[in-house]
Design goal:
Layout: E1 2-6, H1 15-34, H2 38-45, H3 49-58, H4 67-72, H5 80-101, H6 103-124, H7 136-149, E2 154-161, E3 164-171, H8 172-190, H9 202-219
Antiparallel strand pairs: 1-2, 2-3
Length: 226
């Protein structure tokens, strides 16, 4: 299944969502420019779980130097498919959530979900020495918020079944529910595999989605009745 759009029109221009997409695209363009220096760049600005685990056990003051990567890692991506799919999902679900929170609060919500998603990954993969990068966790939080705010929406989806391709409208509850179920299954199967889990931070997706489910109640604006 691949989402094409939702059926809920945005009431205002999603300036924060649009800006996040532009920033992520610019940063990815810079990554392409780095060439052989890319690995060092991703290592220094990504989140390496084992660093936080060791710092917590040996010298908690070292965790201060790990604060910046919690933010910078949210704007890094590992390839074209990674960045395009993330930005596409952000565009589909972000504008409506931004509508219901307001621009500034949406930015805070997005960053909070991203950080909580990353912390979830660290807790479940404490010995991993692979830098974690990507906006997936933050966007999963946006999807979690959408699940709560727009349960009656429908997602226009490109549906693949063997050689058959069809465009269908799928209820948002079903689309997002199936998505998080697949993340939980994949995350559960990856436990104990650490560096052999295919490079996908499944528990960051799960943690971000749960963070969005819960925290949106504190960030959404109350609708006024006419």
């Amino acid at each position: 299944m691949f989402p094409l759009r939702d059926t809920i029109p945005s009431r205002s221009f999603p300036i924060v969502t649009f800006s996040l997409i532009i920033i992520n695209s610019i940063v990815f363009g810079y990554e392409l420019y780095l060439g052989s220096g890319l690995d060092q760049f991703l290592t220094s600005l990504g989140v390496t779980p084992v660093f936080y685990t060791q710092a917590w056990q040996e010298n908690p003051l070292q965790l201060i130097s790990g604060i910046a990567p919690l933010f910078s890692s949210l704007f890094l991506h590992g390839g074209w498919l990674h960045v395009i799919s993330n930005m596409w999902y952000l565009w589909i679900f972000g504008d409506n959530v931004e509508d219901r929170t307001g621009h500034f609060r949406f930015l805070l919500f997005y960053l909070l979900c991203g950080i909580l998603a990353t912390l979830s990954h660290i807790i479940l993969n404490p010995l991993s020495d692979i830098p974690t990068i990507g906006a997936s966790g933050a966007i999963a939080g946006v999807m979690g918020a959408y699940f709560i705010l727009y349960p009656r929406a429908r997602i226009v989806t490109l549906f693949f079944l063997f050689i058959f391709i069809q465009i269908v409208e799928i209820p948002a509850l079903f689309f997002l529910g199936l998505w998080i179920i697949l993340q939980v299954i994949s995350g559960t199967l990856s436990i104990g595999l650490s560096n052999a889990s295919g490079g996908v931070a499944w528990w960051a997706h799960i943690g971000g989605f749960l963070a969005g489910l819960i925290s949106i109640f504190f960030f959404r604006k109350t609708r006024r009745r006419k």
